[in-house]
Amino acid sequence: MKTIEFDYYLPSHLIAQHPVDERDMSRLLVLHKDSGEIEHRNFKDIIEYLSNGDVLILNDTKVIPARLFGYTNQEKPFEVLLVKQLQTNLWEVLVKPIRKARIGLELVFSDELKGVICKYRHGRSVMEFSFLGDFFSVLEMIGHMPLPPYIKRFDNSRDHQQYQTTYAANPGAIAAPTAGLHFTPELLSMIQKKGVQIAYITLHVGIGTFKPIQTQDIHDHQMESEYYIIPDETKEILISNPSRVIAVGTTSVRTIESFFTTNAQAGWTDIFIYPGYRFKRVDVLITNLHTPHSTPLMLASAFAGKDILLETYQEAIEKEYRFYSYGDSMLIV
């Protein structure tokens, strides 16, 4: 299967650059995958598609302010993106400008945080940090939210709240599980009152989530591994509850399917889901509208069917839905 088969043209003005004013007032495109029927709703209407006894799975990872600006004795700063924590003070990072990212490069980010490139790993720099106090607390003070590259602006104070789900609890992601951005505490409370069981998993979203596939054949693509945890309570629900499982986001799907593939409740997963995959425990998918050539688009294609999904995307474009991380939502039933 060729990567080019997952291409489509999106006018640039449909790439959402800012979040909507109220999370649950984003639009909701409902796709009935068996019939091909499409409905156009608002996200708060999603409760109408949930039933007593359903299980709603949410990813409670928390985005860390992983974008840093460090200085040497030059005026122009280096940009550093934290990619993967290897040890307490050791991180795999992306550095710009990359041509100057040499071993021994020392950067000062603030009085509390400094770093030096100590080696290379898998084609990326590894930076050793020295800091005062707790590393993540320092990040909260000086770090910037790692907005994806198609958002053509710097982050602001609003992004620190809006590029984060309202139920985020476990720091470690460098990208938001964007399907969950639409839920408000009030909406989740209403969903629970309807008899829907809400359970949580954690998958720390990494750089692979928004990285386009570079290979011509999708089978040649290697997913970047991401760390996940399924709490005992959620494991018990997934195993013993025969009701529908509604996964919020592709990261929740990948976590659930990883568990039912390997039986590992925690660990690193590089599961790559594309058309032809047979889902083991996910019945309904809530997701955003994804970038061309991306692994989330391929997962959604596997769930809905590639042709019907891309046809639905064309209707979303015609109806001027907002796409990508801060964009509108899609429910596939």
TrEMBL record:
It comes from the Bacteria. Its main location: cytoplasm. It catalyses: 7-aminomethyl-7-carbaguanosine(34) in tRNA + S-adenosyl-L-methionine = epoxyqueuosine(34) in tRNA + adenine + L-methionine + 2 H(+). Its EC number is 2.4.99.17. One of its GO terms (biological process) is tRNA queuosine(34) biosynthetic process. One of its GO terms (cellular component) is cytoplasm. GO terms for molecular function: S-adenosylmethionine:tRNA ribosyltransferase-isomerase activity. Pathway: tRNA modification; tRNA-queuosine biosynthesis. It is found in: Cytoplasm. InterPro entries: QueA (IPR003699), QueA_dom1 (IPR042118), QueA_dom2 (IPR042119), QueA_sf (IPR036100). Keywords: Cytoplasm, Isomerase, Queuosine biosynthesis, S-adenosyl-L-methionine, Transferase. Monomer. Belongs to the QueA family. Transfers and isomerizes the ribose moiety from AdoMet to the 7-aminomethyl group of 7-deazaguanine (preQ1-tRNA) to give epoxyqueuosine (oQ-tRNA). This is S-adenosylmethionine:tRNA ribosyltransferase-isomerase. It comes from Candidatus Desantisbacteria bacterium CG23_combo_of_CG06-09_8_20_14_all_40_23.
